[in-house]
Amino acid sequence: MAIPPPEVVLIDLDGTLVDSVPDLAWCTARMLEALDCPTCSEDDVRLWVGNGVEKLIKRALTGDMNAEPDPALYDKALPLFMTLYKDNSCRLSHLYPDVETGLRWLQSRQIKLGCVTNKPEAFTLPLLDFLGIRQFFEVVISGDSLPQKKPHPAPLLYGAEFFRVSPDKALMIGDSVSDVEAARAAGFRIVCMSYGYNHGADIRSANPDVVIDSFAELENLF
Q1: Which of 185, 178, 186 is nearest to 206 (CA)?
Q2: Would you call 129 a catalytic residue per the annotation?
Q3: What is the pLDDT of residues 27-53, one digit of tens each?
Q4: What number of other Cβ atoms are within 10 A of residue 62's Cβ?
Q5: How far from 27 is each of 119, 132, 136, CA to CA, in Å?
Q6: pLDDT per residue over 157-210, tens digit each?
Q7: Which one of the listed residues 12, 14, 23, 179 is annotated catalytic?
Q8: Would the pTM of this model clear 0.90, i.e. be above it?
Q9: Sign of the dihedral defined by the CA atoms of residues 202, 208, 209, 215, in that order
Q10: How far is CA 171 from the centre of its chain?
């Protein structure tokens, strides 16, 4: 399915541009060990990620997608994880294949680019630098940049306003239901990657406009 060329493309980070689970899983396992809780596997963390650090920690502590852990335990876990991840967020994370090729192609078409993620800025900017792709983005909207984060439309609307472009001329590229919901609420078109972090569900069930397997497919999309 072809879609009209956008003037602005906002792109999710984790599960879209980068596979960050190896670092997240390592830090989550070390956190659980320090708290004498049952540990986890990388496969567990792949199911848990996608809604921010706070949700990841709660899921790790309970082994459940929606349960709430003991508040005192969570209060110990959160700063412990933050310290671990601050020092270990760029060890094992890596770009998905063809990401840089796709970013360069979008840039060559004079399409303005922004990154919109639920990851806190303290982790987002170092990771973009480590991956060597921060220079592609004129704006980076992190999980703590605004009072709201995806699936709320506010981060996407902020990006559209930053570029002074109406939402109907903007596109979101993501990998999760959260990205689809945010895009729909903001009036953006939405393209999803077939890989990524969607809690084990096929992203096609969320009905994005298009699903692609690689950033290399972008040049045939518009």
Answers
A1: 178
A2: no
A3: 999 999 999 999 999 999 999 998 889
A4: 16
A5: 15, 23, 28
A6: 999 999 999 999 999 999 999 999 999 999 999 999 999 999 889 999 999 999
A7: 12
A8: yes
A9: negative
A10: 15
